[in-house]
Design a protein that fits this description.
- The protein has 328 residues and is mainly alpha-helical.
- The chain has one domain: ABC transporter involved in vitamin B12 uptake, BtuC (Orthogonal Bundle), CATH 1.10.3470.
- Helix content is 77%, strand content 1%.
- It contains 14 helices and 2 strands, in the order H-H-H-H-H-E-H-H-H-H-E-H-H-H-H-H.
- Strands 1-2 form a two-stranded antiparallel sheet.
- It is globular.
- It starts with a helix and ends with a helix.
- InterPro entries: ABC_transp_permease, LivM-like.
- This is High-affinity branched-chain amino acid transport system permease protein LivH.
- It is a multi-pass membrane protein.
- One of its GO terms (molecular function) is branched-chain amino acid transmembrane transporter activity.
Length: 328
Amino acid sequence: MKRIRGNILALILTIIFILPFIYPNNNFRHILILFLIFAGLGESWNIITGFAGQTSFGHAAFFGIGAYTSTILFYKFHLSPWLGMIFGAILASIISAVVSYPCFKLKGHYFAIATLAIAEIIKQIFVSWDYVEGATGISIPIVEEGIINFQFHSSKIPYFLIAYVFFVAVVFAAKFIEKNRMGYYLKAIRDSHEAAEALGINTTLYKLYAMMVSAAFTAMLGTLYAQYILYIDPFMVFPLEISMKIVLLTVLGGIGSIYGPIIGAAVLIPLSEYTRILLGGTGKGIDLIIFGALIVIIACYEPNGIIGLLKQKSRKGETVIEKAKALS
């Protein structure tokens, strides 16, 4: 079974990789890049929420911190966005540890509300902060394209390849955590906080590790998004909408599963982009209405999302085969 799952993941990653070369359409490539960014964000969010059971509604804060750190360092000090990305990941990790430590004393919905409030506070700070150009935002200066400057003007393929590498890195990092001691500890904390502490697990420490890793990956993807769009403002990189998209796509696909964010992003991102193209603006929110309806329908049958439905089908298939073998 493990080999089959490994082969399925390898097949999915291979298909994603060859898609922009089979269908060389710029709009399609743009959707693929956004798909990789949001699937990566879902995988990052899964580490703290899917594995550790700490629901965060504030991951847009780490996304924005990553985007702003690299952009400010490049805009004001001409520092490479790659170095800015590293600084952004470190800064997001430190901030996540500082704000999460007291919040971990809260349980259930109170923790989720606290993360939501912190994200909104950070957004308002950036809106009012003149040094980062406040609500006006920053247009990233156009420079010669190339990997060092992290800018590509003639083709979207380099952005796709970078997004793909980041996405694969986040997937394998999440998979590594899931299959090692830290993942087992986090799942124990998720299933029963009191039982995990009774077993001697330092619950606060491991939740802190999970939040810092999750925030670091989220910030790195924020830098990638900023370099791809070449413009940022607080309403673009700190909005509640980004946090909600990360939560919704992972819930639809399946929380706690490596495949969950991939499935959810494969539904939400094309839906968002094509409704935006057809209806203009932000698609009049039609994408979130359809997406919300899908979540309600699927949650009625299987709370673990689409991946839960697929597992149900797989188990039924195995049972039928076993019965057939027993009768033969």
